[in-house]
Structures are given as structure tokens and as C-alpha cells.
Design goal:
By secondary structure, the chain is mainly beta. It has two helices and eleven strands, in the order βββββαβββαβββ. Strand 3 and strand 4 form a beta hairpin.
Length: 155
């Protein structure tokens, strides 16, 4: 069992991530106020905005720290462009699994591999350092709220 150490949203594609203490999450859509909830994210597809189930993204704080330490890159949690930063959770193991964060039930859909767009937006070469530890795309099955400090309950 792990926890949430930070929450971030961006109001539209490529805009800076804004930190929040609590997030309202809507089933089938994502975090209210985030670009993917509004279907204005870089990877939103017209007419099929929510079909890819990229409702909420997570990344391990341990992966962020490893990039900064092992590659000597100034890389902060908000630079990951992921919504939820976890501590003590092996996210790669949650692909295909259902789990609960706060009062929200999620399903891990696929790994969120880093891409050229991420590097362009944050301005640092993180594609290789984050390969296979860039986070998790999740579908929101049941909405509710998530707060910093909430537990991530699996199983």
C-alpha cells in the first residue's frame, strides 16, 4: 500500500502543471480542471476524446528521484506531466488491475511511456531515463475525490 505525494492538473495542452491538494475526479472523464477531462489534451482525439481511457495518469516519486539522481537532470514531479505522484507503489504491476485512491476506483490501462512531446514541453531529455518507468494511464471507474496523503489500495 502506497500513498499520493502530489496532485497536478493542466488546464489545456502543453500548459504548465498546477499543483493541487485535492482533486475532484469524474468517472469516465478524469480530474475536473485537467486537460484530458476537458478533452483538450495533446493526445485527445476529436469525437473519441475519452475512448483511450487516459483519464488520470500516475508516476512513482521514486522514478522521478532516480532520473534526477542517476542522470543528473533537474527534474521535478510537475515536470513529469502526470496527474498523481505516488510513493511506495509499483505502478507497472497495476496494468490491467483495479485499485482505489482516496474514494476513486481506477483501472490501470497501459504504461505511460515518455515521448518527444514530453521532452519538448519540459525542455529536458527524459525519454530514455523514464523508459518503462514513465507512469501509468488509468481509466476512472468510479469518481470521487483524491487528496495528497491518500492511500493507494490494491487487491
Amino acid at each position: 500500500m502506497g500513498s499520493i505525494s502530489a496532485i497536478y492538473v493542466a488546464p489545456s495542452a502543453a500548459k504548465p502543471m498546477e499543483e493541487a491538494h485535492t482533486a475532484l475526479v469524474e468517472a469516465g472523464r478524469g480530474i475536473v480542471g485537467d486537460r484530458y477531462h476537458a478533452a483538450t489534451g495533446t493526445f485527445s482525439r476529436a469525437g473519441r476524446e475519452h475512448e483511450d481511457r487516459r483519464h488520470v495518469t500516475l508516476i512513482e516519486s521514486e522514478a522521478i528521484a532516480a532520473v534526477a539522481r542517476d542522470y543528473d537532470i533537474a527534474f521535478e514531479p510537475r515536470d513529469s506531466r502526470r496527474n498523481l505522484v505516488t510513493r511506495g507503489v509499483a505502478l507497472n504491476h497495476l496494468v490491467g488491475a483495479e485499485f482505489v485512491v482516496g474514494t476513486v476506483r481506477l483501472r490501470g490501462i497501459k504504461l505511460c511511456e515518455p515521448c518527444a512531446h514530453l521532452e519538448k514541453v519540459v525542455g529536458v531529455p527524459v525519454r530514455d531515463p523514464l523508459r518503462h518507468r514513465g507512469g501509468l494511464n488509468c481509466e476512472v471507474l468510479e469518481g470521487g475525490t483524491i487528496s495528497v496523503g491518500d492511500t493507494v489500495r490494491t487487491g
